[in-house]
Amino acid sequence: xxxxxxxxxxxxxxxxxxxxxxxxxxxxxxxxxxxxxxxxxxxxxxxxxxxxxxxxxxxxxxxxxxxxxxxxxxxxxxxxxxxxxxxxxxxxxxxxxxxxxxxxxxxx
Amino acid sequence: xxxxxxxxxxxxxxxxxxxxxxxxxxxxxxxxxxxxxxxxxxxxxxxxxxxxxxxxxxxxxxxxxxxxxxxxxxxxxxxxxxxxxxxxxxxxxxxxxxxxxxxxxxxxxxxxxxxxxx
Lengths: 108, 118
Prior knowledge:
The complex is a heterodimer of chains A (108) and B (118). Chain A has 108 residues and is mainly β.
């Protein structure tokens, strides 16, 4: 099983700041197999980034993804009030499909 | 646009079987891989498994011995059964559509909370 470790677990930030979230895999992944989701309280997860760096339909360009091998990053260039949420990475390079433990981005 | 809606009992007794349904609207169920994913309180997302209208299934090994999923094309519904539940199965349960073109879950239901308690 590929374990995804997200860090930090919690980030306290202010609107307008730049955010970098980390997702580290226990084994090397094909970049097509790494995905990011955003989840707000009481809502279903929403697809943000697929294939490491491709934005899903309707996702603003302040969200970007990068990485390769075992290290992947989600960057929010400038935090908007609606971006405070939990972010999960997910892999499907090997079965079973797994998610990271999530990073909560909270208002400072 | 495909929409998903989960339904089922919100309370299940320990050792009993959890049964949920996901209704698919706005598109054909006879395509795509339909997945179940759960979010336990205070924890991260956990993939349960998928089912396809052809009958193909794939389950998380951690749950495989207790999980059954199926597709009812006549009702446009997907079902999940999880047997011998315990408090550890308390979670929000989501159904989600897997997009093979982008290899991601592109559509999710709103989720349904299931509590396991006597």
